[in-house]
Amino acid sequence: MPGGRTGGRGAAATKRFEASEEATQREEEQEDDGDEDLRDGGVPFFVNRGGLPIDEPTWERMWRHVAKIHPEGETVAQRIRGATDLPKIPIPSVPALQPSTPIPERLEAIQRYIKELQYNHTGTQFFEIKKSRPLTGLMDLAKEMTKEALPIKCLEAVILGIYLTNNMPTLERFPISFKTHFSGNYFRHIVLGVNFGGRYGALGISRREELMYKAPTFRTLSELIFNYEEAYHRCWHVLKKVKLGHCVSHDPHSVEQIEWKHSILDVEKLGREDFRKELERHARDMRLKIGKGTGPPSPTKDRKKDVSSPQRGQSSPHRHNSRGERRLSGEKKPAESKAMPDLNGYQIRV
Amino acid sequence: MEPGGGRKEKPKPKEPVSRLEKAKQKSAQQELKQRQRAEIYALNRVMTELEQQQFDAFCKQMQASGE
């Protein structure tokens, strides 16, 4: 539905809607630049942009940040910095998987490797990921991640997952981004969706065990996403948006960009059934693309001309659909989140 | 070559010195990276424990308040 705006709205309401759309557009653009990483559910964190070894200003900033957020303050740094008895952490070996090993087992091995790097709780992200970089550049970064072997966060795990599965041509990979709400803040998370033999699963890393790896056992994309939604619900997060990318090329030297948001789905506004339908539509789009053998779609301007999925441009009707008034009659609006106990402002981050 | 035919000993070429310097720098960088990695993982362990404690405490509070 072009515009997604009904005739019943007053001018003021329309203006608010437009302002909201612009704000959301800016937010989406910021996400492309990676600026959203500077806040993780309201808690600031930093990105190391100077490579490795970490330069002094970034290193000091990391420790200052830790002193601010840890109850023991500077004692943490005093205990660790310069200590002579720090344990030696072995560098995990990249899984050397035989082509004869079944794909699900290979995925498990890759996930174990990712977990072994550990989720990065330090407050400083060590590898800078620019989502707009060509795939070849991101694969070089992934290689560096395996060499340097440092704790990572969710986006880094997605890049790593792509790198480690490039040699599995029968496995399709596509990014899945989540935006959730908890206790007054928005949280963003991303995993690498996989599709093998018609079964869906995911690779990734998260603070929460249930929000990362999923074995490729889900019969539909909807089932996979609903599984994540339930997992979010169990840690009191409300799922607001899901963004689904298209399949990523297996060519590590490809200069194409990853398409991070082929479909943008507003969970609340769509309503349950439409949400499911849109997920399946995305799944169908992916199958069509694979079937055509055209690989991942070309950049946005060409995608708008794509007849098979006419509603997939960034400012396409689909996107407005996802925000328009498409809730089915009888659908209840999700309950407002209850006030959470105040644990010194603790936020359940994912 | 100097006029008059006498050969002066050529000065040592700069390249090997530069190569040595680069090797030293690389080694120092590698050591720094290893040191940083050890401290990062030690820090990550502390911060992971903190996160887990806070999460567990929060979950208990939620259960106690009978969500």
Automatic annotation (TrEMBL), chain A:
| Listed transmembrane segments | none
Residue span of region Disordered: 1-50, 285-350
The GO cellular component terms are: cytoplasm
**Could you tell me the Gene Ontology terms of the biological process aspect for this record?**
regulation of angiogenesis
List the Pfam families.
Answer: Vasohibin
Catalytic positions are C154, H189, S206
What residue spans carry the Basic and acidic residues bias annotation? 15-27, 322-336
Q: Where is the composition biased (Acidic residues)?
A: 28-38
Where along the chain is composition biased (Gly residues)? 1-10
This protein's name: Vasohibin 1
Q: What is the lineage of its organism?
A: Eukaryota, Metazoa, Chordata, Craniata, Vertebrata
TrEMBL record, chain B:
Location in the cell: Cytoplasm, Cytoskeleton; Secreted
**A matching Pfam family:** CCDC23
Set out the biological process GO terms recorded for this chain's protein.
Answer: negative regulation of protein ubiquitination; protein secretion
> GO CC terms for this protein?
apical part of cell; cytoskeleton; extracellular region
Composition bias (Basic and acidic residues) maps to 1-24
Main subcellular localisation:
cytoplasm
Q: What keywords sit in the KW lines? A: Coiled coil, Cytoplasm, Cytoskeleton, Secreted
> What is stated as this protein's family in its record?
Belongs to the SVBP family.
- Record's protein name: Small vasohibin-binding protein
According to its UniProt entry, this protein's organism is: Mauremys mutica (yellowpond turtle)
